[in-house]
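User: Please run a holo structure prediction.
Assistant: Happy to. Please share the sequence and the ligand.
User: Here you go; the ligand is nicotinamide-adenine-dinucleotide.
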Amino acid sequence: MTPMFSLEGRVAFVTGASSGIGWGIAQGLAEAGAHVVLNARNKERLQLRRDELAAAGFGASIADFDVADHAAGEAAIERVVAERGRCDILVNNAGMPLRQPAIETKLADWQRILDVHLTAAFTLSQAAARHMIGRRSGRIINIGSIMGAIARPSVSAYCAAKGALAALTRALAVELGPHGITVNAIAPGFIETEMTASLVKDKAFYDYGCRRTPLGRWGIPADIAGPVLFLASGAAAYVNGAVLTVDGGMTIAL
Ligand SMILES: NC(=O)c1ccc[n+]([C@@H]2O[C@H](COP(=O)([O-])OP(=O)(O)OC[C@H]3O[C@@H](n4cnc5c(N)ncnc54)[C@H](O)[C@@H]3O)[C@@H](O)[C@H]2O)c1
């Protein structure tokens, strides 16, 4: 590992780490030397992931809670700091889709999407930043989406949440930067995960995604893990408030 990218001795907290992009990120950060705290709601699934990392010789622990439970999130960050003495990296990744026409979307579903994608990122960042400020160092990385900047029909709540997450990234970057903390976001394009399984199965849509992308394929979780490692590492020391699009070129192609 090039020293610039090494996370040896760091502690990283990754939400939504039991599958898909979050699991890919957790593996990437662990391989770079970080102790990774895996969050999701299902404890058994997290234990299997932790055991998988341990079998590969990596340090990991679990924190099972719903990210929309803000008190549980705050307590989990405090526990990590108490047990490990630090929380250097927070990756706000947990999320789920809501594919519904705007005029049929119920207020409770809209609110749930905002709670999980946006408000949880805010409250977990608050909890982590309170600790990071004391160390004058920290990295917060939000997993947004290309849907934060562009749109397609039937994902209005998701687009609103991801657009606001990009704005929150900039707001926290200016406020926490003076304390030595960087706040950045990744905006993935079409990535093959459980969340997109039904879209991947739809051959016409899958092929559309390939055609629409200059690299000619959908992304995989490892395609996001590398850019997150970059943002978490010393290599990105001067990157702050950026929303890095990782979409194989989809959104720059006409
Ligand atoms: N897959 C894509 O094409 C794509 C594109 C852009 C952005 N994203 C974003 O990437 C992130 C990860 O998505 P994915 O595609 O890997 O999906 P996924 O379904 O494979 O993984 C989502 C993870 O979040 C967890 N999770 C969901 N709700 C949670 C909650 N309330 N509390 C705690 N954990 C919760 C799940 O258990 C799982 O571990 C999401 O924020 C998503 O919006 C995905």
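The chain has one domain: 3-243.
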